[in-house]
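Duplicate of #3305? Posting structure anyway:
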């Protein structure tokens, strides 16, 4: 009897038969389902991908999501902040304050990146006021305590995956600056100096068929992990439902792997169901969430 196979993205424990004559005759794998069909693809915590024919499955059990530690969140957020740092930045206690002409909340918010970042809301508010910007905190899960009566918005799902053995994708020309075609295709008028800003890393821009554009930044976390982050992905309305977003993202991940990245992340608005579905099918899984808090 064929096993009941859960949806892509589910963490599972799977036992399967090895080829006849193998010793031992069966093996086990724990990881996230990345593809389902006649063959199941399971990605382990180490990033290895195991292919198992459904006909060889002995047992398959869904598991709860693997726990994410506070330091895992802090490492990813640190790499992401260096990959979208605005054009002016300053450390205040354990907070990294970023300013980028007021363009995008991510480039114009303070994020807690060191353990016990401390209470610095007055100083943060003053720093942004001096630049004519609203004071905004980017608050990842569990990294800082926010008063329950303070409203939040702009919830982001931070999704992550391993880049095991590189990425299988068609090559794509990736440039260090967005050209005129890239800027024309992207709907948000983000200043070029904000788009190209990166700290201790490298940034790349690609587009596919003059219809899809995206950005990738490779930076290192404090634990030494090199991450590639996808952002500014957009497909022109006339070119949608042709797989261009996936092709572009896979090509940018391959570029990131070529730059030494071993893990990847993407930050998606919680209500953007199509984007979350796309990244689910590409092997990303929810790592944590982050929200914005206004100090105004």
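Output from current build:
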């Amino acid at each position: 009897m064929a096993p009941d196979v859960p949806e892509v993205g589910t963490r599972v424990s799977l036992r399967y038969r090895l080829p006849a004559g193998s010793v031992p005759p069966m093996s086990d794998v724990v990881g996230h389902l990345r593809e389902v069909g006649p063959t199941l693809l399971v990605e382990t915590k180490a990033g290895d991908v195991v292919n198992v024919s459904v006909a060889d499955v002995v047992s398959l059990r869904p598991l709860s999501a693997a726990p994410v530690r506070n330091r895992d969140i802090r490492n990813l957020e640190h790499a992401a902040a260096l990959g979208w740092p605005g054009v002016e930045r300053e450390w205040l206690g354990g907070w990294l304050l970023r300013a980028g002409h007021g363009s995008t909340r991510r480039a114009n918010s303070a994020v807690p990146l060191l353990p016990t970042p401390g209470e610095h809301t007055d100083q943060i508010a003053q720093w942004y006021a001096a630049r004519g910007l609203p004071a905004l905190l980017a608050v990842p899960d569990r990294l800082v305590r926010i008063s329950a009566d303070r409203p939040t918005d702009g919830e982001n799902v931070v999704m992550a995956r391993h880049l095991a053995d590189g990425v299988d994708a068609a090559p794509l020309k990736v440039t260090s600056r967005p050209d005129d075609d890239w800027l024309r295709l992207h709907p948000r008028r983000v200043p070029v100096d904000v788009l190209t800003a990166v700290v201790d890393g490298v940034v790349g821009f690609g587009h596919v068929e003059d219809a899809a554009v995206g950005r990738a930044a490779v930076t290192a976390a404090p634990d030494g992990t090199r991450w590639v982050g996808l952002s500014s992905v957009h497909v022109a309305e006339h070119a949608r439902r042709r797989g261009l977003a996936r092709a572009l993202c896979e090509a940018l991940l391959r570029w990131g792997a070529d730059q030494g990245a071993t893990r990847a992340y993407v930050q998606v608005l919680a209500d953007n169901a199509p984007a979350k579905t796309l990244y689910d099918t590409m092997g990303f899984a929810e790592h944590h969430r982050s929200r914005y808090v206004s100090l105004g």
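Confirmed duplicate; merging threads. Helices lie at 70-83, 121-129, 180-185, 192-195, 244-258, 273-281. The chain has a mean pLDDT of 91.
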